[in-house]
Amino acid sequence: MDVSATGCSAGLTGVVGLPLQDRPIELLTSHFERFYARVYGYLLHRLFDRELAEELTAETFYRAAAHHRRLYGNERQIEAWLLRTATRLADTHYRRTRLRRLLLGRFAEGRRSVVSGEPGAGDQPDGLQIRVRAILRSLPLRHQSVVVLRYYLEMSIEDMAAVLKCRPAAVRMRLSRAIKEMRCRLGADHREEI
Questions:
Q1: Given 3-state DSSP classes, what are the helix, strand and coil percentages for the chain, each rounded to the nearest 5?
Q2: pTM, 2 dp
């Protein structure tokens, strides 16, 4: 048995010739573009704001670099760590801006507004897309996360459980409740589209 692949000692080298404690940071740098695209895409579809998604993606990677000793495992585990960090940053931002949004919502009540900078390469979202985005934003944070992880990132239940640090059964329950709530709020006209 190859002792270097077991990782029994911090001084041993891994399969790629790097000390085992340096492999996660090497994986992070070698797959940076793919990880960046996944985290940015997740945040963009979670927040519907390009600038904010870029800012929180940068913060996610800053934290990964600052705390690279916390990174461990293979690509899948590192991606889960990055998405978990991005989720926490998005949740924190949401909580901090909740009061401001409530006040602005009351001010703009009755007006129909289209959020600028939403996903889509310059195309104007139709009425259904706007309603779905508004409904998604109105869901509890834990439901927003599972919907975006499942339908935008197309993650499996097990991968979602790793990102959210919960059991797969809890992920299935959250996803089921989120979809049920979205269908209920969307109305009978468009239920099959969700």
A1: 70, 0, 25
A2: 0.66
Residue where the block lists tokens 């080298």: 13
Alpha-carbon distances of 11 from 26, 65, 169, rounded to whole Å: 16, 21, 39
The sign of the CA dihedral 106, 129, 80, 175 is positive
Q: CB under 8 Å, gap of 24 or more: what pairs does 157-165 form?
A: 159/76, 159/80, 162/76, 162/77, 162/80, 163/80, 163/83, 163/84, 163/87, 164/84, 164/87, 165/84
What structural domains and CATH numbers belong to the chain? 18-110+118-187 (1.20.140.160)
φ and ψ at 19, to 5 degrees? -55, 145
| 72-128 per-position pLDDT tens digit | 888 899 999 999 999 999 999 988 877 566 655 555 554 444 444 444 444 556 778
CA angle at 71 for the pair 65 and 72, rounded to the nearest 5°: 150
Q: What tokens were used for 22?
A: 């340096």
CA distance 3 to 18: 14
